[in-house]
Every structure is written in C-alpha cells, then in structure tokens.
Amino acid sequence: MKIKSAEIVISAVKPTQYPEENMPEIAFAGRSNVGKSSTINMLTNRKKLARTSASPGKTQTINFYRINGQFHLVDLPGYGYAKVAKTSKEQWGKMIETYLNNRKNLLEVFQLVDIRHKPTEQDQQMYHWIKYFGFHGIVLATKADKISRGQRQKHLQLIRETLEMDEEDLLIPISSETREGKEELWEVIGEIFRV
Ligand code: GDP
Predict the structure, then answer these.
(1) Who contacts 77 (Cβ-Cβ below 8 Å, separation ≥6)?
(2) For residue 52, which of 6, 62, 155, 178 sits 20 to 30 Å off, Cα-Cα?
(3) What is this protein's function per UniProt (predicted)?
C-alpha cells in the first residue's frame, strides 16, 4: 500500500464527534500498551501519527486516522490498565459498545494481543465481543521480535486456545520494530476493503 497521506481526523469521546460514515474503516482493539499506536504508525510509515506512549491507559478516546483520503484506521481506547478508576472502566465499555454498535462503515476490528503473554480475561471478552458484533475476529500478535523463532508456535498456539479462535481465524505475528507482518496486514486490509 502506497501511503500518500495520513492524518488524524479527531480524538472522539462521543459519537457526535465521530467523522462522517462516508469512507470504510478498520479499528484496532487491545490492552493498553499492547502496541496499537505503534502498529498504526508502522502501517502508515509515520513515526508519530498515533502517539505511542510509555505510560499506558491515559487516552480514553477513539482516534480516527484518515489514510490517502480513502479510509480510516481507528485506534480504540486500551483496556486492562490497573490504575484506571472503575468509573473510567465503565466509561470505556460504553464507549466501545456504542462505537461497535452504531458504526455503519466499520468493516473489521483487529484484536491485538502481546505474543509473549497468555491473553487476559478482558482480551477474551473483547474477542467474543468482536465476534458477537459480526466481525471475523482477526488477531494480531504484537511484539513478535521479543521472542525467538523457536518459541513462536507455542505462543501462537496458546493465544489461539485461550481466545477459542476458530481454525480459519487469522492470527498474524507482527512487529513494529522489525516491520514483520506489515505487508501481510496490508493484504488483509486490502481484501477487507474490496468486499
Ligand atoms: P498502545 O498503548 O497499544 O498504543 O501501545 P504503544 O504502541 O504505545 O506501545 C507500547 C510500548 O510497546 C511502547 O514502548 C512501544 O515502543 C513498545 N512496542 C510496541 N510495539 C512493539 C514491537 O513490535 N516490538 C517491541 N520490541 N516493542 C514494541
């Protein structure tokens, strides 16, 4: 994918702030710090389009990025940050549900999990949610550079089992450090937009 332009449209906290539903979009869900921003930056060849941060859990906004004036990539607020107050967790749930429920131009939601760790209960919930709303349930295993090739299959298998993924569900190892998985991801995104 040749990236001609990539810009933030808005960091939205409520639906009235969402951009118009006039172009297709794909969203990225996952725990805080899993690598959502880094993945969006990798895909768009931008260092700071989506702000990556070392202090997770701060952003409770839905960030819409417009790519080539043709589609949106959407960074959903991260979950699972222990220090976040309960009220803000509830807020998070409502925010995501409202978005998934009402967004007509949303074609797919990618779930990101850290390749090193067994998916958490919240990861499982998010994944079931994604499937419940009728999306395929494509999972990206982030930070693949952090484990050795020899360990990889074992980790991928644990993710598959824990999330109860179907055999045909895609599980793609990616790394924003080495850019592994970037081309495959763009192919998958291309397929989704062609439908
Ligand atoms: P987000 O909260 O999900 O948006 O996560 P970020 O993209 O901000 O990444 C959180 C931290 O993980 C940052 O310190 C990143 O540099 C680091 N990180 C993200 N992706 C990778 C990766 O593929 N490999 C490695 N080694 N570190 C990564």
Answers:
(1) 59, 60, 61, 62, 92, 95, 96
(2) 155
(3) Necessary for normal cell division and for the maintenance of normal septation.
Ligand 1 pocket: which residues have CB below 6 Å? 30, 32-38, 52-54, 56, 78, 142-143, 145-146, 175-177
Q: Domain map of the chain by residue range?
A: 6-194
Ligand 1: which of 33, 47, 81 to mutate, judged by most atoms within 8 Å of the beta carbon? 33
Residues of the chain with pLDDT under 50: none
Q: What ipTM does this complex have?
A: 0.99
CA dihedral of 7, 140, 189, 124, whole degrees rounded to 10:
-100
- Where is 190: in which H helix or E strand? helix 182-194
